[in-house]
Structures are given as C-alpha cells and as structure tokens.
Amino acid sequence: MAILFEQFPPVKVKHLLTSPDRSCLIHAMKAQTSQPEPGGATLVGLGPGDPASLTREAEDALSEAAEVVLGAGAPARVLPKGTPHTSLDGGPGAVKELVRLARRKRGVVYATLGHPLVDDATALAFCREAHERDLPVRVVPGLSLLDAALLAAGADAAGGLQVVDASAVEASLPLINPQRQLLVTGLGAADAHEAADALRRIYPPDVSCIAVRFERGVASVKEVALSKAGRSGRMDALCVPPVPPADDMRTFTGLRWIVGQLRKNCPWDRQQTHESLKGYLLEETYEALAKLDEGDTSGLSEELGDLLLQVLLHVEIAVEAGEFLYEDVMERIGTKLVRRHPHVFGGVEVESAE
User: Fold this and answer.
1) What's the rounded Cα separation, in Å, for the pair 238 and 224?
2) If pLDDT is split at 50, 70 and 90, which confidence band does 35 have?
3) Which of 37, 229, 231, 295 is the most buried (most CB within 10 A)?
4) Helix ranges, the chain (H)
5) Exposed / middle / buried, residue 281 (Cβ in 10 Å: 0-12, 13-18, 19+)
6) Which of the 8 DSSP states describes residue 144?
7) Quick check: 139 and 43 in contact, CB under 8 A?
8) How far is CA 69 from CA 94, 103, 112, 128, in A?
9) Within 13 Å of residue 45, how many CA atoms lie on the same side as its CB?
10) Average pLDDT of every residue of the chain
C-alpha cells in the first residue's frame, strides 16, 4: 500500500509516521496492550459506529468505564445501556479538555469512530500532549474507517493503493499517480467539492468513482463521475479507479509513458539519436522564445510542451543506452538548486536579490 505523506496536517498519523520525532506515536503504541495507570487515558476505537463492529476489547473497555467521552460524530448507541457519556467536538479545545480529564485520578475513556491512531485527529494530538506530560495512554484499536471504505468500495489494494486525506488533496497532487488506485478519506469533515476540484486538475473529468457514505455504522456506496463528486450529496470517502496510461494526459508520469511508447512503437521516433534531435531542440527553444516575445501565454504553454518533449526524448535515449536515468537528471538539478540557494534551504540570510 502506498501512502501519501506530503503536507498532511501535523496531527495526522501519516505525518507522525514520517516525522523525525515519532516518540508520541511510539509512546501510544507501546501502551496499547497494557492497562492505563490511574490518571491516564484509554482511547477506544469504535469502528464505523455499528455495535456489531466493536472488537471484544472495545466492548470490555466501554463496559468497565464509569463514563465515556465520545469523539465528534461517535454515536452513543454503541455504549452499554445506561453508560454516562458526554460528547467532545474536535479542535485545540478538545485536546486541552482530554488532558484535563486524563489528569484526574480516574482518568478518561475517550471513544472515537474508526481507529484512534488513524481516523481521529483529536486522539493523535492528545497522544502528543500526553507524551510531553508523561500521561499514560492505552489504545484500544478499532476497525479503521479506511478499512471500512476499502471494503465498501470494493477497492483492490494489491495493485497499489494511494491514500490521501481530503484536507491534503491539493498539496498532494504532485505525489498522486492517476494510474494507481486512489482513496480519498476524511470527506465527511472536509469540503468534498474542493477536494474533487483539486483532483480534476490531474484526472479526466468523466472518470467514474465510487462514493462511500457511513450512516449509523452502515456503509452505502454509489457511482459518481468525478466532475459531479462533491455536488451530489454528502460522502465520507471517494475511491478513484486507475486511469489507463493513454488517458493520463495531465501528469509527468503520463507524459513519460507516452514518450516511452513512441520510442518503442513509432519507427521515426525509434530511429532518433542525440545527434539527430539537436536541431529540433534548438528549433523548439526558439519557438518558445518567440511566444514569450509575443506575450502569447497560450502559445507558450504549447511550445513549452514541445520543448519538454525534446528533453524527454533525450532522456529516453540515454536510458536505453545506459548513459543515465531520469532520476539522475532530477538529482543533479535538485542538488544544484539546493547548493546555490543556501538562503532558501540552509541557514544563510540575504537582504536582497543581488
């Protein structure tokens, strides 16, 4: 399973797993199988909210609780009859309240939809605070909403699966490969319309998706075109199928595939060499410069594409000949840019562009 980590909010588990300081998550993971000490917290995963989906450990934890604090959207019907409970909305105030409750001698039992370390930002932020304050935490796992969404959508993770939180879709666009299956989670708490609009920047608008909605612990699914996703009712997750390579027209991955096919299957492209393409590289450069001089930005977009084709053809030829790889080209320009800009990537301060 491929997980996208770029630009997730700092309290998301995807960020914690890639953060240099993972001690707060490790602290919670180490404590999950032990009973909490007096004055601590038990974080209980409720799965999708159906009592039938509770684990035995979750049932026991809820039955033993003197009172339960329910996370945002968590239904009270999963609790044993007569269990005192309160509800807690998300946000910084919720974390502070959990810390206050955890400091009591009897501690706190916090029950949330899904898995506490996967689906609940408040629980993860609390784990960080608890670690800093040396508060004991026990985590009772539940069926993740991610798992439930995969099952409901009939997604096949064996071929490679990308998972991104709805709040991070736009920031993650450079990492998303439309030729792999994508699952967007957290749509119930984010603007699904904005997430779908961001995806339309790299996907064909008519690609058929599966929208997943959870209602009282039961998942329902419906087919929806990406162009209408976010406009056709509430959904909690969206499964976007892989796009055929020939339809992947708006990403660098797709363009690389097309150029590779030209080198394999087009007689003219196949016979080109570095030497034979030199004139085309110069010609396309001059044509791009002409569009700049004319102020024709639409034409410039097309000419830059023609120029990029020449670059990719040279790289493909080099890869075939064992001269260098795409990754070598990326590394060399990336290294050069970082080295030449210590004021951006290092600790050097500058006062002007000179």
Assistant:
1) 9
2) low
3) 229
4) 13-18, 23-31, 56-64, 92-102, 116-119, 121-132, 145-153, 169-172, 192-199, 252-265, 267-270, 274-294, 297-321, 326-340, 342-345
5) middle
6) -
7) yes
8) 11, 15, 9, 19
9) 26
10) 86
Q: What is the pTM of this model?
A: 0.74
Q: Which of 107, 32, 37, 105 is nearest to 69 (CA)?
A: 107
Length of the chain: 354
**Are the C-beta atoms of 12 and 124 separated by less than 8 Å?**
yes
- Say if residue 110's pLDDT is above 90: yes
- What are the structure tokens assigned to 340, written together? 């030449």
Contact present, 141 and 55 (Cβ < 8 Å): yes
More confident residue, 92 or 286: 286
Residue 17 confidence class, pLDDT cut points 50, 70, 90? very low
What number is the average pLDDT over the span 216-237?
Answer: 85
Question: Given its phi and psi angles, is residue 230 left (phi above 0), alpha (psi -120 to 50 degrees) or beta?
Answer: left
Q: Whole-angstrom Cα distance, residue 131 to residue 126?
A: 8
What are the tens digits of pLDDT across the range 146-188? 888 888 888 877 778 999 888 889 999 999 999 999 999 878 6
Residue type, 126: F
Q: How far is CA 99 from CA 40, 46, 126, 304, in A?
A: 9, 21, 7, 55
Separation between Cα atoms, residue 195 and residue 312, nearest integer Å: 31
- Describe the strand order of the beta sheet including 208-215 as a list of residue ranges: 2-3, 161-165, 181-185, 237-240, 208-215, 218-225
Q: Phi/psi of residue 353, each to 5°?
A: -85, -5
pLDDT of residue 81 exceeding 90, the answer is: yes
> Identity (one letter) of the amino acid at 178?
P
Structure tokens at 266: 């087009």
Residue in this structure with the two tokens 């795409």, named with its chain if needed: 326
Distance between CA atoms of residues 293 and 308, nearest Å: 19
pLDDT above 90 (res 24): no
CA 219/CA 42 separation, integer angstroms: 27
Structure tokens at 21: 């300081």
Question: What's 39's DSSP letter?
Answer: S
